[in-house]
Amino acid sequence: MTPLERWVVGFPRSRRRLGAVFTIWLLVAIGCTDKVTVSTVPVSDFFTQDFNPPYFDVLWVVDDRSPMARASSHLVSEATAFFQRLDASTARYRMEFISTDMQYAKGALKIASPLTKGIGDLTLRTGLFASTFQNIINLKTGGLSQGIEAADVALTNYFQPQAGVPMILVFFSDSYDVSNIPSSASSITSYYTGELLKIMNNKTELLRVYSINYNSTSDNCATEYHTDIQNDPTHTNNPYFLLAQGLSGSTGGLCGGFASSIDLSGIRLKTLPNRFKLGGVPTHPLQVLITKNGQQLTTPEWYYDASMNEVVFATTPEEGCTIQIIR
């Protein structure tokens, strides 16, 4: 017998049990220090199934070369309606304004700090937008509308997207976009689609583009004279419209109710998942609870994928529910 064994045998029976426990503890402490200790308290991971994120970034790209003064009251009224919808639709947002001018402004922000919900009121937002249309002739910009290039510069340098936060781009012009592109690029639309998605880490669900422009040759409400867009009423070659159509957005007319065409609903951080990675390796039998609005829901069939440390549902839990995984 080893000295340790003789020491244990020499104890009374009640103390032997204690000695055996001590022996096991001692052996674990001495020889098994590389083992993972098992938690005695279950831990919960929580997940929320939510399509609509609580936070947006909004960048208005406004053509201020010829300020469309003829329709300024209508344009400001529609923009105000959009600002009201924005305040009602999300808990937080950042909003900035830039010019389509790339000769002087070059993507610079019109205000030093982004507007956010609760900072400034509706009058401030409306005033900033209205200031674009105060002058009949704007001598502080170049002669070309290059808003897509300006947006690319602004998002790269001045109004950088935040990780996981959807970006809404609103292009507001009465003309075509003629942004510069490399000689190797096939078109403005295809080149800047790639560039803008690259800025958003190629997550198409985090970028939505809108184009507010003329819809037909008959709705010349804002421009004093003929505009180039009237030569192409179907917008076959209009980069603003084509970009919006290709990046999950929509288009609207300057002369109509464009505020309602900028749809903020359903902007998704991601599609609803059915796999949920746990915060640690389970140390207890897994339990899954699903609730919505304080009511417990029937839990769909699920299994534990040990290789990925994920709980996987056969049916995706519904939008708006909270998933609690006890491990």
Describe the structure.
- The longest helix has 19 residues, at 13-31.
- It is built from 7 helices and 13 strands.
- The chain starts with a helix and ends with a strand.
- It is α/β, with parallel strands linked by helices and 327 residues long.
- A 6-stranded mixed β-sheet has the order 4-3-2-5-6-7, sandwiched between helices. It has a 4-stranded antiparallel β-sheet with strand order 1-13-9-10, with no helix packed on it. A 3-stranded antiparallel β-sheet has the order 8-12-11, with no helix packed on it.
- It folds into 3 domains: 1-35; 36-50 and 272-327, no CATH class; 55-261, Rossmann fold (3-Layer(aba) Sandwich).
Low-confidence stretches: 2-33
Could you estimate the helical fraction of the residues in percent? Answer: 25-40%
CATH architecture of the largest domain: 3-Layer(aba) Sandwich
- Domain module tally: 3
How does the major sheet shape up?
6 strands, mixed
Percentage of residues in DSSP E strands: 15-25%
